[in-house]
Amino acid sequence: MTLAEKDKLDEVLEYFHLKSSELKMTASETVEDEIKVLQDVIKFAQRKLEESTGEVKEKIQQVIDFSEEKIEELQLKTSLGSDEAKEVVASIADQMEELIDELRKSDVMKRVGDVAKSVGDLLGTLGKKVGKSASELSRVIALRTDLSRLNSKRRELVTQIGEMVHKRLSETGSLVLTEELLKLSKEVEKLDMEIKAKKEELKRVGKEEDLSEEQINTIIKEADQG
């Protein structure tokens, strides 16, 4: 699974988790809102599906299949009373979380999943505090995902540079600044600029979404650690 492929699955699972949180917040008597939440999941996942291959494509398809199945289930329960509808929706939200855990079986995806779940819980909580749903915070979510991806790429490049330096020193006892090292170093510098710009954009959008400075900084910190 390449980094680019992992990013696509990460985005889908993070969005899926946020929507499960939204389900728990918006249980209605007609379950129409809940059906729309799952339809949003399908639309988002289908876009990522078209860009994916192999194992990632299979996992994203599982998210789509699950959502379609639960939409059919909800459509059969539109006549339920409010309390019964809430129980059904809560059960579906729990099943969504179980599916997320199942799709994060490898150690790498488990690490990414922990970050996504943490941020998802954070944004779900923030949504309640500022009176917004997860979908209304979609710009913040998208920027946080972008920032996490950029940070991940930077860590990979820095690790690659470190391995090259170590290999060179262990083999020759000296370090020569090769064209390859210079190229990687410039790529890190470029990523540093992109990361700085993305953080500024996230701060600006966060303020537009009525998030506090502390809340915005927490989101940025999570992305830096991801």
From TrEMBL:
It comes from the Bacteria. Residues 28-102, 181-208 form a coiled coil. The keyword Coiled coil applies. Keywords: Coiled coil. This is Conserved Archaeal protein, putative. It comes from Coprothermobacter proteolyticus (strain ATCC 35245 / DSM 5265 / OCM 4 / BT).
